Amino acid sequence: MSFSNLLQDMAIRERRQQGPATSSISLASTADDRSTISRARSYASTAATSVSISGDISSQLHGGYHHPLARSWQAERQLTKSMLIYPVFISDLEDEESLIPSLPGQYRYGLNKFIPFLETLVRKGLRSVMLFGVPMAPGAKDALGTAADDPKGPVISAIRLIRQRFPSLFICTDVCLCEYTNHGHCGILRDDGSLNNQLSVDRISDVAIAYAQAGAHCVAPSDMNDGRIRAIKLKLIEEGMAHRTVLMSYAAKFSGCLYGPFRDAAGSVPSFGDRKCYQLPPGGRGLARRAIVRDIGEGADIIMVKPASQYLDIISDAKELGKDLPVAAYQVSGEFAMIHAGAKAGVFDLKTMAFESTEGILRAGATIVITYFAPEFLDWLDN
Ligand SMILES: NCC(=O)CCC(=O)O
Ligand SMILES: [Zn+2]
Ligand SMILES: [Zn+2]
After folding, report:
1. Is residue 179 within 6 Å of ligand 1 at its C-beta?
2. Which of 69, 180, 201, 217 would you label with 186, given CA atoms 20 to 30 Å apart?
């Protein structure tokens, strides 16, 4: 019997108040054993006491988080301004400034209005935006989503202007066709209304290249067509832009009812059917894991999970599967609207809930948060 086993054994007996562990002595046959036992016996009363104290020691947790600073130390990671990406809606009408009713406090901006708005945020420490183009001019949409990479269209014009005016701002571009197609789906359709994957991937990778060429730092395809990450990566390499362009994959984008306000904002409600055959089914954890592994293999630089709070297990899966990649989480329009609605109904305080939801997202494994709360967080993080 080893010294530590013996000690443990004796301590247990002592605690049971069965007196000294005499029976162990009978196990000792050599002189060595006997000396071990005598050392053990003299230590036994101390050991027994320390076992009973250690029960009390481990029950004391409050001391570790009594002070606000000590509380902050309990988090593996804390929200900082550089983790935030702010999604913004850019209209093709230059002077547009219209409140999006279902997305509290968010506007569709034409470039003339957007730049002054952005200036305030950059001054407060905003580091990154995600651009969504909103073609509002009549006749702007067609079956191929031609407006998506129109050199005079909202996204490409915004990229050029932002690069000029705010050179330190990191520009992400959502790459999809749904805002630009007259049918509102995320690609090019076959006659039967299903997505033609190959044509869609060709078209979407062209759009990504056009955004990167205009100066976007990051292209983020959200269309969910199979093989688009590989196609975009190959074209970026071919065009000599792979070394300076982050490829962020909406790897695990789930279909569901949380995108409603976004579709109001971007005018991208499908004119028929839904997106259930290309976005992931909400229960499909295994499918999400396969999509994450696939997109890492196809050359994604960042994995995104979307929506965020309803899919924390997927964020944690993404962190596990893509140990060496940053994980981004998109707190989508429906999550944002829900938090606002809850606060308005007096269920909770808006700021407290905004932080709590974000803390959950970070705890699950994300280090990048795409959120409509970004402007508020810039203020809140200063206080
Ligand atoms: N590609 C972006 C979306 O599909 C929706 C995001 C949102 O609901 O905020
Ligand atoms: Zn889309
Ligand atoms: Zn989308």
Report:
1. no
2. 217
ipTM of predicted assembly, 2 dp: 0.91
Q: What pairing do the DSSP bridges indicate for beta strands 107-109 and 97-99? A: antiparallel
Is 254 contained in some domain?
yes
Crossing angle of helices 111-123/154-165, nearest 10°?
A: 40
Whether residue 198 lies inside any domain: the answer is: yes
Is ligand 1 within 6 A of the CB of residue 211?
no
pLDDT band at 228 (very low <50, low <70, confident <90, very high): very high
Domain limits for position 29: 1-50
Q: Is the CB of 262 under 6 A from ligand 1?
A: yes
Does the annotation count 276 as an active-site position? Answer: no
Question: Which structure tokens are listed for 275?
Answer: 């997106």
Whole-model pTM: value is: 0.85
Q: Are residues 146 and 262 in the same domain?
A: yes
One-letter amino acid of 219: V
Exposure letters 309-321 (e unless 16+ CB within 10 A, then b): bebbebbbbbbeb
Do residue 104 and residue 22 come from a single domain? no
Q: Are residues 175 and 229 in the same domain?
A: yes
For 66, list phi and psi in degrees, rounded to 5: -70, -45
Q: Is the pLDDT confidence value at 17 over 50?
A: no
Q: Specify whether the CB–CB gap between 292 and 321 falls below 8 A.
A: yes
Name the domain count of the chain: 2
* Same-domain check for residues 8 and 124: no
Tell me if 290 is assigned to some domain: yes
174 Cα nearest atom in ligand 1: 1
CATH of residue 94's domain is 3.20.20.70
pLDDT-based confidence at 26, cuts 50/70/90?
very low
Ligand 3 mean position, distance from CA 58 (Å): 49
Atom of ligand 1 nearest to the CA of 258: 8
- Whose CA is closest to 374, among 72, 155, 127, 117? 127
- Domain contains 87: yes
